[in-house]
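Researcher: I'd like a structural prediction for the single chain below. Treat it as a standalone chain; there are no partners to consider.
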Amino acid sequence: MKEKLYTIPVNEAYDSGHECPLCYIKETLERQAIEYTMGPSYMEDDVRAVTDKIGFCSNHVGLLYQDQNRLGLALMLKTHMDKVIDTIEDLTAKSPKSSKSFTGLFNKKKDKDPLVSYINELEESCFICNKINNTFDRYINTIFVLYKSDDSFRKKTSQIKGYCTDHYGLLYELAPNFLKGEYLDSFISDLNKVYLENIKRVRDDLDWFIDKFDYRYKDAPWKNSKDALPRSIIKTNGKNVNTN
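Model: Treating it as a single chain, here is the predicted structure.
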């Protein structure tokens, strides 16, 4: 298959040698989303309308803070706070004001307090997460399209270093929505094989890493275990930790 623009990031991820190509894609998308948000876009009205409304999750606001554009982040947080204040002032004006009204309200489980609903929505919303997930979904679709149409990509999926547990489960769950018959059987077989073989490989490296703390193995070679702990964190939690 002739490589098109939307296939390039997927092929790069599967060629990267990463312990999980989908984590590689998410890390790349996250980096790009941070750069986009902290670039000139934060002054655009349509972007600010969204960030004012939904804000950022705790993880991504921390990454935004690490960026050098502190003024940009301050401006976005200030207008987001203005939006939160206005919304909460409006909601509290309509909320119950006595212990009796609170008791009556919360006895009706189906009638959730609008203020509680708003806070819950804020906690679950993030401009960066939305930007990442919207693109990530298209890349997942691309993986299955390539698997059906590109022999070289199909071979590539059986030769990678596996997946983290979360993304293994995601592909396992979604595969029947995109593949049928022998393509589905082949994909699931390859998926199971590369996941189990490689999580065992990393588990064995981690086991040797642990043994190296035993005085009996003090002078033994490290083999492939020096970075076994961060690789294990990728496999189990899909998290790439800074090893510098």
